[in-house]
Amino acid sequence: MAVSCVSTAPVVMAFLLFLSAILSTGSCGGQVPLVLWSSEGHPVPRQTPPPAGHVVSAAELDSYLSSVLAATPRNTLLFLQDELSVDDFTVFGGVFGNKEDSVFPHLESALKASSSPLVLPALSWGGSSAVLPLLQQHLGTPPLYLDPPSLTHLRLNASVAALLVIRLPYKAGSGPESSRDALSGNDAVIGQVLDIMKAQAVPYTAIYTAFKPSRQVAEDLSEGVQSVGRSLLQAPAGTLAPLQYSVNGTACILLWAESLEVSVFNKTWQTYDLAPETFSTSLNVTNPNVTLANSTCGATQAESRLVLNYANILGFRKFSLTFTMSRRFYPVSAREWFTLDAVELEYDGQTAFFNGSRDLNAPAEYSYHCASVTSFSHALLVPFDPTESGQWRLSFTDFQIQGFSVAGPRFSYASDCASFFTPGIWMGLIVTLLMLLILTYGLHMITQLRTMDRFDDPKGPAISVPLNE
């Protein structure tokens, strides 16, 4: 489930349709939506959405609120409902064109009037409980609980921060009508509060969320069952975020892998996974166990280097993994390609070098993705010196890297190492062709059958067929 910044150009119902489409990407269990907008004339800063299918954690919510509240009005309205799920928008939002059937007319009107509201369809249950403390921390003021009648007697100052909390009760009843009535009543309360703020001419920032989901759906995949098939990695869903190296605040190299295993032979193979030391749980945050010193990149440079520096790995005090990439123009294809030329492993002054220029390449504007990149089985990384590099093994799972044409913290379209015609597809095509040949031969034989031109008459003399005829 992804974060979306909705513009005012589309009809507001597109926002609800977007939420409805998100449901097809996974389960909604344990997740609540969060909608943030500001009063007319005070746009919400556009945020870079996290990877598709990503559930926003409390730490990521803190980052979003920090950037949003710094540019929006300091008077904050928090509409805090007891329970809320994305299903409530899709079931009761009139998403099939029947606007009169929607129970959110005031919310939709507020979103339409606001400039670029922020929508978080999938906020973790733990993150939703942290909304109020985070707002209190960023605004530097305690919450004030009130209702619409109390708000009419309150005089707000646009230059002084205020955190106003409006509790919206909601309990999913035994039938849809009870839920519809509860949501419709809460939407009416939202409309009353916004009308009061408009009458007082006080700019505001509003947030609509809940303590916990009203509907919890069981996970589609049971524990221990893994999905099959191949997919291009945009970024891992619900796992660690990609590593990015930035220059002047702009990302220019992206890296992600489910595992970054390095193995050294010392009587037996000793393996260490660098992924937990490399990737963090939040975007734009570097894991403290790795440094990117000596990394280089630039839009005009033909070479990029991503250097991952560690300490105390497999008994080595200094340990680093370097990915060297280059970009060249090839006249045959009339386009630029980038190549992962080498992966260099340095440990306490010694170096092991692996060549990847033969197989690890992609168009310069794409990222490169491969389910498995190893230096030993079906090797895509070839040891340069068997004596020095032969004692090391590299194994990267769900590996994706982009060293050029990076636009923000998201990977570009991935060029996958697996070709379109996989062995399974070739087997299917060959078997199908063989069956077609057999069918064609059988039809040809049937068309060659000839019926007899003379028949025996049981009442007449027998037909005599001379042998020399």
Task: Give a verbal description of the structure.
By secondary structure, the protein is α+β, with helices and mostly antiparallel strands. It is built from 11 helices and 20 strands. The protein has helices at residues 13-22, 58-69, 86-92, 105-113, 125-129, 131-139, 148-152, 176-200, 275-278, 386-389, 423-447, and strands at residues 4-5, 31-38, 75-83, 118-124, 143-145, 162-168, 205-212, 243-247, 250-256, 259-266, 268-273, 303-313, 316-330, 335-347, 350-355, 361-363, 367-374, 382-383, 392-402, 414-416. The strands form 3 sheets. A 7-stranded mixed beta sheet has the order 1-4-2-7-3-6-5, with helices on both faces. Strands 8, 9, 10, 11, 17, 19 and 20 form a 7-stranded mixed beta sheet that branches. Strand 12 and strand 13 form a beta hairpin. Helix 2 (58-69) packs parallel to helix 6 and helix 4 packs across helix 8. The chain is flat and about 125 Å long. Residues 1-29 and 217-238 have low confidence and may be disordered.
